[in-house]
Amino acid sequence: MRIDVLTLFPEFFPGALGASIVGLARERGLVDFRLVNIRDFALDKHRVCDDTPYGGGPGMVMKPEPIAAAVESVKSESPDARVILLSPRGRPYRQSLARELSGVPHLALLCGHYKDIDERVRTIVDDDISMGDFILSGGEPAALALIDSVVRLLPGAISDPESAGRDSFETGMLDHTHYTRPEEFRGMRVPEVLRSGNHARIAEWRRREALRLTLRHRPDLLEGAALDDRDRRMLEELKREGT
User: How far is 237 from 208, CA to CA, in rounded Å?
Assistant: First the structure.
């Protein structure tokens, strides 16, 4: 996979792109990153990429010419590159979308900045994605989040793909609670069932825990989760218990 990042601040990325799973995937040749400095496509010697908004008002707007030229430089080399604008108006980012994007050979992530980008540039963008209902200083942190969520899904990026397949949201719900050594920590013991060696009991307990946590913290996820009759019975029991 190739991922281009179009940004005014390329210095934001090298550390993060060289660390943890993303860095290992890069070393293994699973992903190739290219940082495209939008300022390199500015039309003046000072490389100005923003201007005041038409109609007045606060803030600055990213100029269309440098963005368009940067996007077209990527497209000229790779016409099938999928250009994604990180934008508040974009469709909400979900794990299902991360999995979809992990199958795209070439992503080009366009990082907005300031108040917004010039609206006319959206005509050359393939997709808008929003990371959530909160404000960032620019699209750079959002691009890093998208990159991390996509790269970890590439075959070979994670040594234990079965573990990744059971993460929160992969199953449509939150994951169950987890414990490791020591058996007792500050008076709190690991649940007995996890020490029992009874794999059937453990699997049932973990499923119940996933349902409990999802019901308590993200009940909205249950509407789209794949639940069987046993799950529904567990949910009814948890509701009666006031979980």
Answer: 10
Of 162 and 56, more confident = 56
Q: Would you tell me how many other CB atoms lie within 10 Å of the CB of residue 66?
A: 24
The residues with which 6 forms a beta bridge, in sequence order, are 36, 110
Q: Please write the tens of the pLDDT for every residue from 45-65.
A: 999 999 999 999 999 999 999
DSSP for 146-194, written as a single string: HHHHHHTTSTTSSS-HHHHTTSTTTTSSPPPP---S-SEETTEEPPGGG
What lies within 8 Å, CB to CB, of 75 at 6+ separation is 81, 83, 108, 124
Mean pLDDT of the chain: 95
Distance CA 147, CA 214 (A): 26
DSSP state of 205: H
Backbone angles phi, psi at 106, to 5 degrees: -140, 115
**Amino acid at the residue 133:** D
Overall residue count recorded for the chain in this entry: 243
Rounded to two decimals, what is the model's pTM? 0.90
Are residues 32 and 185 in contact, defined by beta-carbon separation less than 8 angstroms?
no
Domains and CATH numbers, the chain: 2-151 (3.40.1280.10), 166-241 (1.10.1270.20)
Antiparallel, parallel or unpaired: β 2-7 and 106-111? parallel
Q: Can you give the pLDDT at residue 93? A: 97
